[in-house]
Specification:
The complex is a heterodimer of chains A (167) and B (555).
Chain A (H helix, E strand, L loop, with lengths): L4 E9 L4 H12 L2 E9 L5 E9 L2 H13 L3 E7 L4 E11 L7 H9 L3 E5 L4 E7 L1 H11 L4 E6 L3 E4 L9
Antiparallel strand pairs in A: 1-3, 1-4, 2-3, 5-7, 5-8, 5-9, 6-7
Chain B lengths: L1 E3 H11 L4 E4 L6 H9 L5 E3 L4 H15 L3 E5 L3 H4 L2 H9 L4 E7 L15 H5 L5 E4 L6 H13 L5 E7 H5 L1 E3 L16 H13 L3 E5 L1 H5 L3 H11 L3 E3 L14 E4 L6 H9 L2 E5 L5 H4 L2 H4 L4 E6 L13 E4 L2 H11 L6 H12 L14 H11 L5 E4 L3 H9 L8 E2 L9 H12 L5 E6 H7 L3 H6 L4 E7 L4 H10 L15 H8 L2 E5 L5 H10 L4 E6 L24
Parallel strand pairs in B: 2-3, 2-4, 4-5, 5-7, 6-7, 9-10, 9-12, 10-11, 12-13, 13-14, 15-16, 15-17, 17-18, 18-20, 19-20
Antiparallel strand pairs in B: 1-8
The chains are: A alpha+beta (167), B alpha/beta (555).
Amino acid sequence: MNPDEFILSILVNNESGVLTRVSGLFARRGFNIDSLSVGVTQDPKLSRITISASGDDYIKNQILRQLEKLHDVKIVEIMPGNGTVMRELVLIKLNVSQEARVGLMEAVSVFRAKVVDFTNDSLTLEITGERNKCEAFIEYLRPYGVAELCRTGLTAISRGSKTLKYK
Amino acid sequence: MNINGAEMVIRILIEEGVDTVFGYPGGAVLDIYDELYKHSEQINHITPCHEQGASHAADAFARVSGKVGVVISTSGPGATNLVTGIANAYLDSSPMVAITGNVPCSSIGKDSFQEVDITGVTMPITKHNFIVKDAANLADTLREAFAIARQGRPGPVLVDIPKDIQKATCVYLPKKPRYPVYRNENGKEAFAEAVKLIKACKRPFIYSGGGTLVSNATEELLALAERVDAPIGSSMMGLSAVRHDHPRFLGMTGMHGRYAATQAMAQADLLIAVGTRFSDRATGNKIEFIKGKKVIHIDIDPSEIGKNIPAFVSLIGDVKTVLAKLVEELPGMRRAGWNQELAAIRNSPDSRLKMPEDSLNPETAIRAVNRMADPQTVVCTDVGQHQMWVAQYYNFSRPRGFITSGGLGTMGFGLGASLGACLADGRKKTLLFTSDGSFHMNMNEMATAVSQQLPIIIVLMNNNTLGMVRQWQTLFFDKRYAHTSLERQTNYIKLAEAFGLEARQVSELPDLQPALEQAFAAKGPFLLELIIDQDDKVLPMIPPGGTINDIILKA
């Protein structure tokens, strides 16, 4: 992670329009979103948004305070760099002939990626991990010709028994 | 009890203590209007000429009364016409609930007739908004809207109600409205830090904003000034919280602030900022603004702390509650040296900028109107030079007595606002200062002032130009008057008469007094057109991004 990058975990009401409210706030106040992932939590009334953003302490503080003002936001926390498990999932499609696949399969094994689709003229791989690992894998694959690439954006959870709770 | 959604709207309005609403009927709110008809004894509905006028009226009603202002409009264009008014209320933290009708749920998303995604449109300019898609949630959603509008830093909330929800059957169970209760939540340390800074400083200055008015904290603010022995300056939004003639009050600060207030603020080594967000119009160059100063920032909105100006100490919470506690913690102090400096600033010739006393000009006009008006009179303005002149020259004597568009700077705000202000003030004589530029934007609301027979005196300062823009063009654009010289031939007197108002034009000072006597004697609305010079300037002026050293005192 860059020194000015940080990960926000946000619990929000699981209702339509909430994602627009959160992302709209970033857009209109000029804050950057580097990645965003969202999904329902164990409580179906709540969704959890993980945002990777960057900025100095001023921006970080403003993002927190402004998000806290949104009616649908229950709690916002900045996840500490250590003490947090961060993961991203990447799907990569390569249009490669069968001969070219030998070196690839080795990389799949070293990076602990997975082959999720396999045809005569294409190969789709899946990798899960921290961002650096995913990026290293993508870099390794580039020379093979990446036909398509999808990334979920980071999601994050605390290590240990600590959880995101709101009053 | 089973009722339909439209009646539910009325029941909740009554439950929330609403007795006046502003709105405009239309296809998607017909059911609500049918219920308004049936409940006209409980709720007074005012129909303006345009939804924008209704939204400004509701905003001003809220500011004068301290209650939530309510505006109702139909879907589509009705809803979009509210947008400027909602944004205005948002920027000035005015509690408002906007209720819009929408096409039936089944037609939403089909680009149906008069369909617009108003919750999408107003998302960035509301504290929160709702679309009700299940009649079972209607009552609590409306209650929630009122609670959000009132809670903390007030602001507008929009509730979009599709037509089928208005027709649907729902169950009414009465509930009590929720009013915010404020306690001090700042720790001892924060107060101790603030007390330490106040004790250590030599030249404290209390800078009061709109939050002081919202919180009704005039008394506490004055108590703080007394305890600390500090002068008080005000942002434009904070004007009227402190009486103009209070010995500690220096006036408005900032771009067009009074020289003494801005100079004293510049000299200060400690700012105690109360209920203010340090707008760029108030601070100028932010880096120079805080040089040599420490700041104690008191505000209910934590996101304002450090947003525009860094704070050494922040006290978050309701201004009234926090100030009361802070005063309790402070010993009495006396600052002879600072008071001497302040006296010198007050007595400096720069503090006595005056327009000629023997001609009709903004200052002589405003002072003459001021002399005629009861001190309790609510004063509204539009936006531009006249607004600044009123902020500078009018002697405000009661909290919530000055209703103006601050953050958004909405030309066309004034006439709609004066309707709401007048109604909130028990239909007492109300003043509106406006100008030919602003007035042309929403002058249609004269019709409403007439139909409601509201005793509003419209003081229209006519210089046949967009004066504030012209002033900038004179000072910063080498007098290239791009599209500000209006070659309009509007005859305001005939216009007013056509709308059913009494009206009079004055172009010479000696004619002013008799015209004012006629205006103040009028039972209904009155338009007084004053011809002023197009090169009268708002002074002093600190150019945008400037400091007290850049102050322009002479044109």
